[in-house]
Design goal:
Bound molecules: alpha-D-galactopyranose
Distance between the termini: 58 Å
Radius of gyration: 23 Å
Number of helices: 11
Strand order of the largest sheet: 2-1-3-4-5-11
Amino acid sequence: MRIWKHAALAGAALMIAIGSAAAQDVKIGFIVKQPEEPWFQDEWKFAQQAAKEKGFTLVEIGAQDGEKVQSAIDNLGAQGAQGFIICTPDVKLGPGIAAKAAANDLKLMTVDDRLVDNEGKPIESVPHMGISATKIGETVGQAIADEIKSRGWDMSQVGMIKVSYDQLPTAVDRVEGATSVLQKAGFPADHIFNAPQAKTDTEAALNAATTVINAHPDIKHWVAVGLNDEAVLGAVRATESVGIPPENVIGVGIGGADSAINEFKKPNPTGFFGTVIISPKRHGYETALDMYDWIANGKEPDKLTLTSGQLATRADYQKVRQDLGLQ
Ligand code: GLA
Protein backbone atom coordinates (compact mmCIF):
# COMPACT_ATOMS: atom_id res chain seq x y z
CA MET A 1 0.00 0.00 0.00
CA ARG A 2 2.70 2.35 1.15
CA ILE A 3 4.90 1.45 -1.77
CA TRP A 4 2.05 2.18 -4.16
CA LYS A 5 1.51 5.59 -2.64
CA HIS A 6 5.15 6.43 -3.11
CA ALA A 7 5.08 5.20 -6.63
CA ALA A 8 2.09 7.42 -7.35
CA LEU A 9 3.86 10.43 -5.85
CA ALA A 10 6.99 9.71 -7.82
CA GLY A 11 4.83 9.44 -10.92
CA ALA A 12 3.26 12.83 -10.20
CA ALA A 13 6.69 14.39 -9.73
CA LEU A 14 7.80 12.88 -12.99
CA MET A 15 4.76 14.32 -14.74
CA ILE A 16 5.58 17.79 -13.42
CA ALA A 17 9.17 17.39 -14.57
CA ILE A 18 7.98 16.38 -18.02
CA GLY A 19 5.60 19.32 -18.05
CA SER A 20 8.32 21.89 -17.39
CA ALA A 21 10.81 20.21 -19.72
CA ALA A 22 8.16 20.49 -22.43
CA ALA A 23 8.05 24.29 -22.23
CA GLN A 24 11.76 24.46 -23.03
CA ASP A 25 11.26 22.18 -25.99
CA VAL A 26 8.48 24.24 -27.48
CA LYS A 27 9.55 26.32 -30.46
CA ILE A 28 7.11 28.63 -32.21
CA GLY A 29 7.67 30.67 -35.37
CA PHE A 30 6.20 34.16 -35.80
CA ILE A 31 6.31 35.09 -39.49
CA VAL A 32 5.38 38.62 -40.59
CA LYS A 33 5.05 40.17 -44.04
CA GLN A 34 6.66 43.54 -43.26
CA PRO A 35 9.26 43.34 -40.52
CA GLU A 36 10.23 47.03 -40.88
CA GLU A 37 6.71 48.23 -39.97
CA PRO A 38 6.36 49.31 -36.31
CA TRP A 39 3.10 47.37 -35.94
CA PHE A 40 4.88 44.09 -36.67
CA GLN A 41 7.84 44.94 -34.49
CA ASP A 42 5.41 45.50 -31.64
CA GLU A 43 3.70 42.18 -32.35
CA TRP A 44 7.06 40.43 -32.11
CA LYS A 45 7.92 42.26 -28.92
CA PHE A 46 4.72 41.12 -27.21
CA ALA A 47 5.05 37.58 -28.59
CA GLN A 48 8.55 37.45 -27.04
CA GLN A 49 7.01 38.53 -23.76
CA ALA A 50 4.75 35.46 -23.87
CA ALA A 51 7.75 33.27 -24.73
CA LYS A 52 9.68 34.61 -21.77
CA GLU A 53 6.79 34.11 -19.38
CA LYS A 54 6.10 30.53 -20.46
CA GLY A 55 9.68 29.50 -21.20
CA PHE A 56 9.31 28.57 -24.88
CA THR A 57 11.39 29.77 -27.82
CA LEU A 58 9.93 32.23 -30.31
CA VAL A 59 11.59 32.52 -33.72
CA GLU A 60 10.96 35.84 -35.50
CA ILE A 61 10.96 35.59 -39.29
CA GLY A 62 10.28 38.30 -41.88
CA ALA A 63 8.85 36.93 -45.16
CA GLN A 64 7.98 39.51 -47.81
CA ASP A 65 6.98 37.07 -50.55
CA GLY A 66 5.66 33.59 -51.17
CA GLU A 67 9.06 32.03 -51.70
CA LYS A 68 10.35 33.34 -48.36
CA VAL A 69 7.21 32.03 -46.65
CA GLN A 70 7.76 28.54 -48.08
CA SER A 71 11.38 28.38 -46.99
CA ALA A 72 10.55 29.86 -43.58
CA ILE A 73 8.04 27.07 -42.95
CA ASP A 74 10.49 24.38 -44.11
CA ASN A 75 13.14 25.90 -41.89
CA LEU A 76 10.87 25.86 -38.88
CA GLY A 77 10.09 22.22 -39.60
CA ALA A 78 13.79 21.37 -39.85
CA GLN A 79 14.50 23.21 -36.57
CA GLY A 80 11.97 21.05 -34.74
CA ALA A 81 9.37 23.78 -34.17
CA GLN A 82 5.85 22.60 -33.41
CA GLY A 83 3.84 25.51 -34.77
CA PHE A 84 3.81 29.02 -36.17
CA ILE A 85 1.78 32.17 -36.40
CA ILE A 86 1.81 34.09 -39.66
CA CYS A 87 0.78 37.41 -41.17
CA THR A 88 1.21 36.43 -44.79
CA PRO A 89 2.48 38.76 -47.56
CA ASP A 90 -0.41 37.52 -49.72
CA VAL A 91 -3.62 35.95 -48.43
CA LYS A 92 -3.98 33.92 -51.65
CA LEU A 93 -1.03 31.82 -50.53
CA GLY A 94 -3.53 30.27 -48.09
CA PRO A 95 -3.84 26.73 -49.47
CA GLY A 96 -0.06 26.51 -50.04
CA ILE A 97 0.72 27.69 -46.51
CA ALA A 98 -1.76 25.22 -45.00
CA ALA A 99 -0.25 22.38 -47.06
CA LYS A 100 3.34 23.30 -46.12
CA ALA A 101 2.42 23.52 -42.45
CA ALA A 102 0.80 20.08 -42.58
CA ALA A 103 3.76 18.58 -44.48
CA ASN A 104 6.09 19.85 -41.75
CA ASP A 105 3.74 18.75 -38.98
CA LEU A 106 3.40 22.32 -37.73
CA LYS A 107 0.33 23.83 -36.10
CA LEU A 108 -0.83 26.93 -37.94
CA MET A 109 -2.51 30.11 -36.79
CA THR A 110 -2.87 33.42 -38.63
CA VAL A 111 -2.79 36.97 -37.39
CA ASP A 112 -3.91 40.27 -39.01
CA ASP A 113 -4.50 38.98 -42.54
CA ARG A 114 -6.75 35.94 -42.94
CA LEU A 115 -5.84 33.27 -45.48
CA VAL A 116 -8.24 32.66 -48.34
CA ASP A 117 -8.84 29.52 -50.43
CA ASN A 118 -8.77 29.20 -54.21
CA GLU A 119 -12.20 30.82 -54.42
CA GLY A 120 -11.18 33.77 -52.29
CA LYS A 121 -13.16 32.60 -49.25
CA PRO A 122 -11.57 32.70 -45.78
CA ILE A 123 -10.02 29.40 -44.70
CA GLU A 124 -12.11 28.97 -41.58
CA SER A 125 -10.32 25.88 -40.30
CA VAL A 126 -7.19 27.92 -39.48
CA PRO A 127 -7.50 29.84 -36.18
CA HIS A 128 -7.25 33.57 -36.81
CA MET A 129 -6.96 36.80 -34.88
CA GLY A 130 -7.67 40.02 -36.76
CA ILE A 131 -9.16 43.45 -36.18
CA SER A 132 -12.90 44.21 -36.53
CA ALA A 133 -12.09 45.82 -39.84
CA THR A 134 -15.46 47.27 -40.86
CA LYS A 135 -16.18 48.66 -37.42
CA ILE A 136 -12.75 50.23 -37.11
CA GLY A 137 -13.11 51.70 -40.59
CA GLU A 138 -16.43 53.19 -39.50
CA THR A 139 -14.69 54.83 -36.55
CA VAL A 140 -12.24 56.41 -39.02
CA GLY A 141 -15.13 57.69 -41.17
CA GLN A 142 -16.97 59.12 -38.19
CA ALA A 143 -13.86 60.89 -36.92
CA ILE A 144 -13.36 62.51 -40.33
CA ALA A 145 -17.05 63.48 -40.63
CA ASP A 146 -16.94 65.10 -37.18
CA GLU A 147 -13.76 67.00 -37.98
CA ILE A 148 -15.09 68.23 -41.35
CA LYS A 149 -18.03 69.61 -39.42
CA SER A 150 -15.95 71.25 -36.71
CA ARG A 151 -13.72 72.92 -39.32
CA GLY A 152 -16.87 74.18 -41.03
CA TRP A 153 -15.99 72.76 -44.45
CA ASP A 154 -18.64 72.43 -47.10
CA MET A 155 -18.82 68.63 -47.55
CA SER A 156 -19.60 69.00 -51.25
CA GLN A 157 -16.23 70.63 -51.85
CA VAL A 158 -14.01 68.10 -50.15
CA GLY A 159 -12.08 65.38 -51.96
CA MET A 160 -11.21 61.98 -50.53
CA ILE A 161 -7.97 60.15 -51.17
CA LYS A 162 -8.98 56.54 -50.75
CA VAL A 163 -5.72 54.65 -50.51
CA SER A 164 -6.74 51.13 -51.41
CA TYR A 165 -5.18 47.67 -51.49
CA ASP A 166 -7.97 45.50 -52.83
CA GLN A 167 -6.19 42.16 -52.82
CA LEU A 168 -6.36 42.21 -49.02
CA PRO A 169 -9.90 41.68 -47.65
CA THR A 170 -9.25 43.45 -44.32
CA ALA A 171 -8.03 46.49 -46.27
CA VAL A 172 -11.22 46.54 -48.34
CA ASP A 173 -13.39 46.24 -45.23
CA ARG A 174 -11.53 49.03 -43.39
CA VAL A 175 -11.72 51.48 -46.27
CA GLU A 176 -15.32 50.58 -47.10
CA GLY A 177 -16.28 51.09 -43.45
CA ALA A 178 -14.80 54.59 -43.53
CA THR A 179 -16.32 55.63 -46.86
CA SER A 180 -19.79 54.26 -46.01
CA VAL A 181 -20.02 56.39 -42.86
CA LEU A 182 -18.79 59.47 -44.70
CA GLN A 183 -21.28 58.97 -47.51
CA LYS A 184 -24.10 58.61 -44.97
CA ALA A 185 -22.92 61.91 -43.51
CA GLY A 186 -23.31 63.54 -46.93
CA PHE A 187 -19.91 63.07 -48.55
CA PRO A 188 -20.37 63.15 -52.36
CA ALA A 189 -19.65 59.79 -54.00
CA ASP A 190 -18.07 61.47 -57.02
CA HIS A 191 -15.46 63.10 -54.79
CA ILE A 192 -14.13 59.76 -53.57
CA PHE A 193 -10.94 59.17 -55.55
CA ASN A 194 -9.37 55.75 -55.56
CA ALA A 195 -5.60 55.63 -55.00
CA PRO A 196 -4.56 51.99 -55.35
CA GLN A 197 -1.20 51.33 -53.69
CA ALA A 198 1.17 48.73 -55.13
CA LYS A 199 2.51 47.75 -51.68
CA THR A 200 1.29 48.44 -48.16
CA ASP A 201 3.91 50.99 -47.20
CA THR A 202 4.11 54.78 -46.97
CA GLU A 203 6.06 55.24 -50.18
CA ALA A 204 3.57 53.29 -52.28
CA ALA A 205 0.72 55.26 -50.72
CA LEU A 206 2.50 58.55 -51.40
CA ASN A 207 2.88 57.63 -55.08
CA ALA A 208 -0.76 56.58 -55.41
CA ALA A 209 -2.04 59.68 -53.62
CA THR A 210 0.13 62.05 -55.65
CA THR A 211 -1.51 60.83 -58.85
CA VAL A 212 -4.96 61.53 -57.40
CA ILE A 213 -4.07 65.01 -56.11
CA ASN A 214 -2.46 66.03 -59.40
CA ALA A 215 -5.56 64.93 -61.28
CA HIS A 216 -7.79 67.24 -59.19
CA PRO A 217 -6.09 70.62 -58.80
CA ASP A 218 -9.51 72.24 -58.23
CA ILE A 219 -10.03 70.52 -54.86
CA LYS A 220 -9.08 72.64 -51.86
CA HIS A 221 -9.85 70.38 -48.92
CA TRP A 222 -8.71 66.78 -48.71
CA VAL A 223 -9.47 63.87 -46.42
CA ALA A 224 -7.52 60.60 -46.50
CA VAL A 225 -8.33 57.03 -45.50
CA GLY A 226 -6.45 53.77 -45.94
CA LEU A 227 -5.58 50.37 -44.56
CA ASN A 228 -3.22 51.59 -41.87
CA ASP A 229 -1.25 54.58 -40.58
CA GLU A 230 1.40 54.10 -43.27
CA ALA A 231 -1.21 54.44 -46.04
CA VAL A 232 -2.70 57.61 -44.59
CA LEU A 233 0.75 59.06 -43.85
CA GLY A 234 1.64 58.51 -47.51
CA ALA A 235 -1.43 60.49 -48.56
CA VAL A 236 -0.61 63.26 -46.07
CA ARG A 237 3.00 63.43 -47.37
CA ALA A 238 1.58 63.73 -50.89
CA THR A 239 -0.56 66.74 -49.91
CA GLU A 240 2.52 68.36 -48.33
CA SER A 241 4.65 67.77 -51.41
CA VAL A 242 2.25 69.78 -53.57
CA GLY A 243 2.00 72.56 -50.97
CA ILE A 244 -1.49 71.96 -49.57
CA PRO A 245 -1.49 73.46 -46.04
CA PRO A 246 -2.10 71.01 -43.15
CA GLU A 247 -5.27 72.79 -42.05
CA ASN A 248 -6.81 71.78 -45.38
CA VAL A 249 -6.15 68.08 -44.77
CA ILE A 250 -7.74 65.49 -42.44
CA GLY A 251 -6.13 62.06 -42.48
CA VAL A 252 -7.14 59.36 -40.01
CA GLY A 253 -5.14 56.13 -39.92
CA ILE A 254 -5.38 52.75 -38.22
CA GLY A 255 -2.64 51.37 -35.99
CA GLY A 256 -1.35 53.74 -33.37
CA ALA A 257 2.23 52.45 -33.33
CA ASP A 258 5.32 54.67 -33.61
CA SER A 259 4.50 55.84 -37.14
CA ALA A 260 1.43 57.64 -35.80
CA ILE A 261 2.80 58.69 -32.43
CA ASN A 262 5.90 60.29 -33.97
CA GLU A 263 3.60 62.30 -36.20
CA PHE A 264 1.64 63.59 -33.20
CA LYS A 265 4.90 64.53 -31.50
CA LYS A 266 5.90 66.92 -34.27
CA PRO A 267 5.84 70.51 -32.98
CA ASN A 268 3.32 71.67 -35.61
CA PRO A 269 0.17 69.76 -36.52
CA THR A 270 0.26 67.96 -39.86
CA GLY A 271 -2.66 66.72 -41.96
CA PHE A 272 -2.48 63.47 -39.99
CA PHE A 273 -5.36 64.24 -37.66
CA GLY A 274 -5.83 60.93 -35.85
CA THR A 275 -5.50 57.19 -35.73
CA VAL A 276 -7.59 54.31 -34.45
CA ILE A 277 -5.29 52.57 -32.00
CA ILE A 278 -5.40 48.79 -32.28
CA SER A 279 -3.64 46.29 -30.01
CA PRO A 280 -0.32 44.71 -31.02
CA LYS A 281 -0.27 43.22 -27.52
CA ARG A 282 -3.39 41.19 -28.14
CA HIS A 283 -2.21 40.21 -31.61
CA GLY A 284 1.34 39.29 -30.55
CA TYR A 285 1.08 38.12 -26.94
CA GLU A 286 -2.27 36.36 -27.18
CA THR A 287 -1.60 34.52 -30.43
CA ALA A 288 1.77 33.31 -29.10
CA LEU A 289 0.12 32.13 -25.86
CA ASP A 290 -2.70 30.47 -27.81
CA MET A 291 -0.18 28.61 -29.96
CA TYR A 292 1.77 27.57 -26.88
CA ASP A 293 -1.38 26.27 -25.19
CA TRP A 294 -2.25 24.34 -28.31
CA ILE A 295 1.17 22.69 -28.47
CA ALA A 296 1.77 22.12 -24.77
CA ASN A 297 -1.76 21.44 -23.55
CA GLY A 298 -3.66 20.38 -26.64
CA LYS A 299 -6.05 23.32 -26.28
CA GLU A 300 -7.07 24.54 -29.72
CA PRO A 301 -7.39 28.31 -30.14
CA ASP A 302 -10.73 29.90 -31.02
CA LYS A 303 -11.29 29.83 -34.75
CA LEU A 304 -11.88 33.57 -34.99
CA THR A 305 -11.04 36.44 -32.64
CA LEU A 306 -11.68 40.03 -33.70
CA THR A 307 -10.13 42.86 -31.73
CA SER A 308 -11.35 46.42 -31.34
CA GLY A 309 -9.85 49.89 -31.72
CA GLN A 310 -9.96 53.26 -30.06
CA LEU A 311 -9.76 56.65 -31.77
CA ALA A 312 -6.93 58.95 -30.72
CA THR A 313 -6.05 62.37 -32.09
CA ARG A 314 -3.08 64.67 -31.70
CA ALA A 315 -5.06 66.35 -28.92
CA ASP A 316 -5.80 63.31 -26.76
CA TYR A 317 -3.47 60.49 -27.82
CA GLN A 318 -1.49 60.54 -24.57
CA LYS A 319 -4.61 60.10 -22.47
CA VAL A 320 -6.05 57.43 -24.78
CA ARG A 321 -2.78 55.51 -24.67
CA GLN A 322 -2.74 55.75 -20.91
CA ASP A 323 -6.34 54.50 -20.67
CA LEU A 324 -5.40 51.56 -22.89
CA GLY A 325 -2.42 50.75 -20.66
CA LEU A 326 0.09 51.68 -23.35
CA GLN A 327 2.12 54.15 -21.34
C1 GLA B 1 -2.63 44.44 -41.75
C2 GLA B 1 -1.87 45.73 -42.03
C3 GLA B 1 -1.05 46.12 -40.81
C4 GLA B 1 -1.90 46.16 -39.56
C5 GLA B 1 -2.58 44.84 -39.35
C6 GLA B 1 -3.50 44.87 -38.15
O1 GLA B 1 -1.73 43.38 -41.71
O2 GLA B 1 -1.02 45.59 -43.15
O3 GLA B 1 -0.47 47.38 -41.02
O4 GLA B 1 -2.87 47.16 -39.71
O5 GLA B 1 -3.33 44.50 -40.52
O6 GLA B 1 -4.23 43.68 -38.01
